[in-house]
Every structure is written in structure tokens, then in C-alpha cells.
Amino acid sequence: MREEMRDRHLLSIIILFLFRLAHMSLELHDVVHLIPPETMTAWQSMYERHPGLKTSSLMLNAALACAAEAHKSQTRDSGLPYIIHPVTVAILVADVLEDPEAIAAALLHDTLEDTPITPEEIVSCSTATVLRLVRALTKIQHLPAVQPSEREAEHWRRLILGMAEDLRVIIVKLADRVHNMRTVDVLSQERQIRIATETRVVYAPLADRFGLQLWKAELEDLAFKSLDRSGYQSLAQALMLRKSERQDLLDAAVADIRTELESNQVAPLDVAARAKHLWSIQRKLVDRVVSVDGLHDLHGVRVVLDDVGQCYQALGIIHHRWQAVPGRMKDYISHPKSNGYQSLHTTVIGPGGGQIEIQLRTREQHRIAEWGLAAHWSYKEARLSATSNEWFSHLQDLATDQAGADEFLEYLQKTLQGGELFALTPTGDVKRLPARSTVLDFAFAVHTDVGLHMSGARVNGRQVSLQGLLQTGDTVEIQTHPRAHPTRDWLSWTHLPRARQKIRQYLAHYDPLVKATASDTVSTSTSSKGKALPSIVSVSDSIAEESTMILPLGPSQPLSKTATSDTTGMLVKMASCCWPIPGESICGYTTRGRGVSIHRSNCPELLTIPVDRQMDISWETLGHTTGTARLWIHGSDRHGWAMDLMQAVTSQNASMAGVQITVKREAARARLDVQVQSLHHLNKVLTSLEQVRNVTTVVRETTAGSISRTNISSTSSLSPKAPTRRRAVRTLEKKRRPPNEGKLK
Predict the structure, then answer these.
(1) CB 630, CB 603: distance < 8 Å
(2) Which of these, 391, 397, 395, 421, lies nearest to 409 by C-alpha position?
(3) I want to staple 261 with a disulfide (CB 3.0 to 4.6 A). Which of 216, 266, 383, 462 is the partner?
(4) C-alpha 179: how far from its chain's center?
């Protein structure tokens, strides 16, 4: 019975398939008169250039027939039949991507928006995947009465989400814009300016981001022509007058490069001259403030080789033969662009004394250089992954976030127009970020938990604020603390959509708790307990020079020295110059961009701080917490001495925050950073350390003075050692004294 049902089902599928095949052929025959002959000729030529598409010709012809029927009563602004546009877009897509469904989607991309055709009819002449692509390309219709910016943002948001599902969406969208710009001349001047501006600001950079360099160059030139027609024409004429002269130099350069490489046993696959497009030349003229005669790199030579090794070998040969222009060598093979572009660039003084830019790349790199992500698209990997394009990943995060229209469009345009930077972790990992990214952006790029618990950072070994701007080449070390957490200010300190999204989520969930007690803050800010942070992060609890946390300093606390704004949720730092611990009198002052710094009340550092920046703070205000005491222990070296010191500390329920042991001959010195709960707790730790064998001196480092304790009851028996202990104490006090302390007194 089951076999009979299966056979019937299979037979029905075959009958339906044959019916659709006949239906497809019939439809194209019936509507072929609606398609201009030259357009139909171009369509047939597409099959000749891409013979692999012939196996899908029935589906493609059916989609063409469906589009012709849907647009049969429509014309373009030029008066020509509308069907010319979708067919041209489909041919453009085919030249980039030999994918039948993408080509069918290009044919039908305007049908849902501009014709009465139904989704079911689209599926009947193509596939469900084609319908999904068409829907992703369709603009938002019948939106409520909203601002134009919101409508535009919603359209781009939908397009971005469609691109996230399928790379083919952006291919069709850019092909659509290329043909629209080719025919923009028939529109009014106002519409030309609007469309050309949008093309220059959004579409051309978008093509560049995805590596579609040929389309990017054409879009930029067409926008240049529409926005500055006189400038475009004058530049084109100036280049035309010099074309024959420069062509002779290029031909000579191509021949010399090929001969030089072959004589050194490097056989290039291709050596060809290339002319730079007009808009790139125009930008050089403006940036360098020169005339056309002052530009020496209007043309270049592209060399395609077998493998990467040959590229570097050819670079050495070229530099040996011709003089390289300093500062013009770029290695995009070792450091690819974000769109996947890889090539070696160099500029040399070529034949005739003119500068010639030379690009060296492999065949595969050349294909990707021209067509970007489309060059390695496959049916199985149609989805655009975050790892293939980090910029798009960030944009996708913002599209899925509940960000406003202004924020979404601002990020889209800012990042398309702006560049990018490369910063390094202490272990040498490279993080790619948008230009003008902050240290906080870097922290979230490393790991979400790192960003959420960031307390500080060092850039190139220098302490910086969270909102400090990064530059390419910076080495960034992120400091974290379990009690650190985001505040509302962080939203203005980061530019990455993913970071803003995580900060918003945290504030929405924990913001009411941030106003509670310090203990509440500790419990909520460690919600990521159990997740290990990356090893490149410097956690403030381990060998830290300053203890950093975020605690509520409630505005109800009386402040005798200055009236401050609401300090709830401010960043609080325990100063590393005087190492305050609970039980000692403390004072705080507001820093520039780094929260409140807590010092001992008698710390000389406070003498340099204006009174209006100081504030009275008590340990009760901070809540129940610990302080770090830096201890120096001197003694004679023996096996197991360091282990005994740490055991003496932990036996008093104190935590180790840092350890440094130095041994010189038989003398040993240890620096211990110990977290204690009070002065009484510290005394217990000191007493325990005194009991360790071979310990002669225990000193607590402070700026106001040092506490020296020894386990020797009779100083006479160790008289030679006594001067050494006294000098150690005095030396520590001298080191911690500010350089201007004498002047202040």
C-alpha cells in the first residue's frame, strides 16, 4: 500500500514538472513580441558567454516571459519599454554570478513593487527561493506616515537583513543601480542630483565593501558625470589629448616588465596596462592640488602570476630593475582589505622617467579583486557569514537591533565613507575596526564579557580612558574587573552596533539594580560567571597596579568639600600610590574621564589636586569591600621560601593579587599585593608573615610612611642586619615621595 502511494506521488510530481516545462516554453513564445529585438539578442548572447546557464534556460525563459507580461504596459522615463531594464540587470548579474535563481530574481525584482503580479505567480514561473530574493529587494510600500529618513532606513534595514540571508540580494541590487545610473541622463536635474549623490555616498562604497571593483568604478564615474558634468568632460578631454603619448609609455613598460620577469625565470600569466577611472583621478587632483600634467600615475600595469611566491619574487625583480618610489609599497596579500582584496602594490620610475603603479597578484586574487565575494560564491554557502565581512556583520547587528532610523543611517553612511583601522592585542592578534573606534569598541571586539566588565586599558603601554580613540598599529591591553559594568555614558563612547546592543541589553536588565547597594552591584555585574575571558585580557585582580570597580556613590552622602553631580554607577579606582584599605581615612577626587580616584586622606597626591575636585568619601559609602596592601618582605633565600610566604597570607583568609620574587646571591626580596578587609586583618597577615623562617623585615608600602615589623626579638644579636632594614624603609619612603613635595612644604 505504501509503495503504491509513493508511486502515485512520484507520478504526480513528474506530471507537474512536465506541465511546468510546457507552460514555461509556451509563455516565452506568447510574449516574445513584448521584448525589443535588440534586448532579445542581448539575452541570447548571455547564453553564449555563459554556456553553463543553458541547462536552466527553461526556468530563465519562463521568468523572462513572466516579467515581460507583468511590465507590458509600462515604459521607462525615456519612453522605452520597461522590460529593457530588468533584462539588462539580469545580464549584468549573469556576468558576475552564473546563478539561475539570482538571474531570475533580477528579471522579476520590480514585479511585486510595480505590477499586480502575485507571489504565487512568481513561484509558478521560477522557484520559492527566487520569490524570497525578490521580496528582499522590494522596497517598503504603504508605510505609516513617517519621516523620509525612517522610510529610507526601513528600506535599507530590510535590504541588509535580506543580504544576511543571501549574498545574491546585494548583487542584484547593485546591478539595478548600475543600469539606473547608465540611463539617468533622461531624468530631471533634481532627480539626477539626488540619485547620483545617493550612488556616490552609499552604492559605490557598498560595491567596494563587497569587492565589486568594476561596478564601484563605473558607479563613481557615472555619479561624477551627473554631479559635475563640466568637470567630468574637461577631465575626459584632457586625458584624451594625452592618451597616445601615455599609451606609448605604457606599451613600453608592459614589454619591459614581461621581458625582465621572463629573463629571471618568472613567467607571468598576463601583463596588461590599465587606466584608472576618472573619479579616482579627480580625487588625486583635488588632494594633491595639481593639474593633469602633474599626475604621473594615471595608468598602471597589472601582473598576474601562478602563485603568491612568484608575486613576491616578481616584486624583488621589479625593484632591482627600476627605482621604487618611497612609501608607495603596499602588501595587501599579507594584510588583505576587509572586502577580501589581495595584491602587491608598488610604484616605480619607469621608462621615460614617469611613475608607473604596478600590481602583482595571482589568478584567483585577480578574480576576487574584480568581483569580490561574488567570485567565490557557491550554492552551498549562499549565506554571507560574519567572518567573511566584519563590516557587514556589524551592520547586520544594528539592523536587527532596535536602533532608531537616524542611528542606523548614520552608521551606514559613516562606515561606508570612512576607512578602517587595525589594532593589536598583546599577543599579536589583529582586530579590524571602523575608523575612529574607541578603546571600548576594541574591548567588545575581543569578547562581549570583556567589554561588559572593562575597567581600564593601556594603549602602547600607556593608561588611557575608555573613550580614547585608536589608531592603526596600536597595541591594546584591556583591564577588567568583576564589579565593572556599563553605564549610560558608554553608549556615547562606542561606535560598534554590536557593542551598543549589548550595553543596551545590560542597562535594560540591570539598570534598576545599579542604584541599589554595592553588594547588589557585585551580584548582578557578575552574571557571566563561569565564562572564561580570553587570555589576552589583563584582569585587574591579578598583579594589578590599581584596583578598579564600579560602585554606587549615592548622592545622599554628604560631601563637605564639593557639591557633585549624581555619582551613581561611576567608575571608582583605588589609588596605587597610597594603597588605601578599609578602616583608614580616605578621600576621593574626580578624574578626567576615569571616574573617582580613592586615596588615603594623608596621601601627598591630594596636595596637587584642586579642592573643588575633591570629595569626602567613607568606606560605608563604598559598601563592604576590600583593599590591596603592597608588602615588601626581605630575608635570606632558601628552598620553599616563596611558597611559605604565600601560605602565610592565605592562612589568614587573605587573597593574593600579585607576587614578585627577587633573589640576588643569598638575599631574597618579595613583593606581595595582598587583599585585606581591614587594618586588623592586615595586622594578622603581617604577624603571620613574621613567623616565616628566614624573614628579617616586613614593610607595607605607603606614601605617608611605612610600617616595619620584624620577627627578631633581640636586635643586638643581628646588629649587622639592622642598618639594612632601616635603609630599606627609608628607600621606600623616598621612592613614593612626589617630586614636588619639597616645594609644597
Answers:
(1) no
(2) 395
(3) 266
(4) 32
Q: Which residues, 6 or more positions from 156, have their beta carbon under 8 angstroms from its beta carbon?
A: 399, 408, 409, 412
Provide the 3-class DSSP secondary structure of residue 674: strand
Which CATH superfamily, name and number, covers 627-736?
ACT domain (3.30.70.260)
Q: Which residues of 264-283 are buried (b: 16+ CB within 10 A; e: fewer)?
A: eebebeebebeebbbbebbe
**Nearest 10 degrees: Cα torsion 407, 445, 490, 514:** 120
How far is Cα 634 from Cα 99, in angstroms, rounded to an integer? 76
DSSP 8-state code for residue 436: T
Query: H helices of 418-457, where?
Result: 439-446, 448-452
Look up 113 and say whether it is catalytic: yes
- What's the whole-number mean pLDDT along residues 684-688? 91
User: Domain residues of the chain, as ranges?
Assistant: 15-231, 236-379, 419-525, 551-622, 627-736
Which range among 334-338, 680-684, 705-709 has the greatest average pLDDT? 680-684
Catalytic residue among 77, 113, 185, 566: 113
Decide: 113 and 141 in contact? Cβ < 8 Å.
Answer: yes
Cell output for 72: 507590458
As a whole number of angstroms, the distance between CA 434 and CA 438 comes to 9
Higher pLDDT, 414 or 330: 330
The CATH class that applies to domain 15-231 reads: mainly alpha
pTM value? 0.57
Residues 6+ apart with CB under 8 A from 356: 249, 250, 253, 297, 299, 300, 301, 347, 348, 349, 350
Phi, psi at 191, each rounded to 5°: -70, -35
Residue 176 Cα distances to 49, 100, 419, 476, angstroms? 20, 17, 26, 43
The mean pLDDT value for 561-566 works out to 33
Q: Supply the mean pLDDT for the chain.
A: 75
CATH architecture label of 236-379: 2-Layer Sandwich (3.30)
* Catalytic residue (choose from 114, 228, 364, 520): 114
Tens of pLDDT, residue by residue over 449-486, are: 899 988 888 898 888 888 888 988 888 999 888 878 88
Number of H helices and E strands in the chain, helices first, is 29, 21
Is the pLDDT at 442 greater than 50, yes or no? yes
Strand partners, 420: 434
Instruction: Judge if 15-231 and 419-525 fold alike in CATH terms.
Output: no
What pLDDT is recorded for position 399? 60
Find the range with the poorest average confidence among 376-385, 570-579, 715-724: 715-724
Helices (H), 341-389: 363-371
Q: What superfamily does domain 419-525 belong to in CATH?
A: Beta-grasp domain (3.10.20.30)
CA distances from 2 to 5, 10, 13, 14 (A): 5, 12, 17, 18
From residue 121, give the alpha-carbon distance in Å to each of 115, 132, 482. 12, 13, 58
Max alpha carbon distance in the chain (Å)? Answer: 118
Strands 667-676, 655-664: pairing is antiparallel
Residue 546 annotated as catalytic: no
